[in-house]
Amino acid sequence: MNEPLEPMPLKTRLIRRLLPLAILASAAALVVIQMTQAVTQDVDLQIELSPGLPLDFSLIELQVIDEQEQVVSLTQFRFDQSHRPEKELTHTLKLTRGSYQLVFKVSSTEAPPLVIRRRLLVEGDALTRFRLP
Length: 133
What we know:
alpha+beta, 2 domains, single chain, Immunoglobulin-like, three-stranded mixed β-sheet
């Protein structure tokens, strides 16, 4: 009546032991991929250059400062008189969610630098417009 059970083949035992680990590793990999994609947001800036800027500006420096007062991005836009944008600049930043201060420093040859500060709240991918000054 009670016949002894035959031992499982080695291949079947390995599959039974490794299958849950493979499923767990796959799930962990998917979570990591989702988290890394959610860490940074694409923030497209459109910076309108209004007539209040010095006519001979040659440099616009953009500092992005986080809540801990750390500069997380520094971008310089350099121009010469023959290659200046007429109305706007566009720039894309990759930032984590949070509050930032944008510091624009407009330099010209004939006037002291003009410093303009703006606030930026990042909650997701977004298009944000600013006017200088």
